[in-house]
Design goal:
Number of strands: 9
Family: Belongs to the methyltransferase superfamily. NTM1 family.
Radius of gyration: 16 Å
Strand order of the largest sheet: 3-2-1-4-5-9-8
Distance between the termini: 28 Å
Mean pLDDT: 97
Protein name: protein N-terminal methyltransferase
CATH superfamily: Vaccinia Virus protein VP39
Order of helices and strands: HHHEHEHEEHEEEHEE
Structural class: alpha/beta
GO biological process, one term: methylation
CATH topology: Rossmann fold
Strand content: 25-35%
Keywords: Methyltransferase, Nucleus, S-adenosyl-L-methionine, Transferase
Enzyme class: transferase
Largest sheet: 7 strands, mixed
Helix content: 25-40%
């Protein structure tokens, strides 16, 4: 992707999200009704790894990437981790998160306003880095670089989790929000390029038939 094209790919996405209402429905593109199904699936997935014992992932600190108003932080991460950091490209969403998260928001360590292509997470800080419905906003090279930075940001036995839409074949661009949807083999290849292993992968069930399949991958 040429520099000019790359620049507009990112700036168009920023413009799109700036006009989205800071609500759960806004975060989910009008599919607010699937939020509970999504969270329950994620919780079951994550619980396979968390806990005491050899090789298990700790619960000190998580990073919510593309956090929006904190939908995932509120219902998935804050109940499971002692502290959570939120990163999003839209400052208005992070401002809204401060009220949306309520009392539990006191356990948020940092609100980071940044695109993931520019984010350098603190080394060795996170047990889990949760990346949901946002990898489509990164170019292939930026996604690989970001995943490498995430790996450095993990604590011992930490996990990077990607949960995202999966295309049937190839790469499907979305002009509306300036993103792409990749097929699973492409996601696997990019994860491999970043030097990460896939520990576990599953498809989210019970989503509406008309939306993309959603897959969750645990990486280390």
């Amino acid at each position: 992707m040429a520099d000019a094209g790359e620049t507009s790919f990112y700036s168009n996405a920023v413009d799109y999200w700036r006009d989205v209402p800071p609500t759960v429905d806004g975060m989910l593109g009008g599919y607010g009704s699937i939020s509970s199904i999504d969270i329950n699936g994620s919780k079951a997935f994550l619980r396979k790894f968390l806990g005491e014992g050899e090789g298990q992932t700790g619960t000190a600190c998580a990073l919510d990437c593309g956090a929006g108003i904190g939908r995932i932080s509120k219902r998935l991460l804050l109940p499971l981790f002692r502290s959570v950091d939120l990163v999003d490209v839209t400052q208005e969403f992070l401002d809204k998160a401060k009220t949306y998260l309520g009392e539990e928001g006191q356990r948020v360590g940092r609100y980071l306003c940044s695109g993931l292509q520019d984010l350098v997470p603190e080394s060795g800080r996170y047990d889990v880095i949760w990346i949901q419905w946002v990898i489509g906003h990164l170019t292939d090279d930026h996604l690989v670089d970001f995943l490498r930075r995430c790996q450095k940001a993990l604590r011992p036995n930490g996990l990077v989790v990607i949960k995202d839409n999966v295309a049937f074949e190839g790469v499907v661009p979305d002009e509306v929000d300036s993103s792409v949807c990749r097929d699973l083999s492409i996601v696997h290849a990019l994860v491999g390029r970043a030097g990460l292993q896939i520990l576990h992968e599953e498809q989210q069930t019970d989503f509406p038939k008309e939306i993309y399949q959603v897959h969750t991958l645990a990486l280390r």
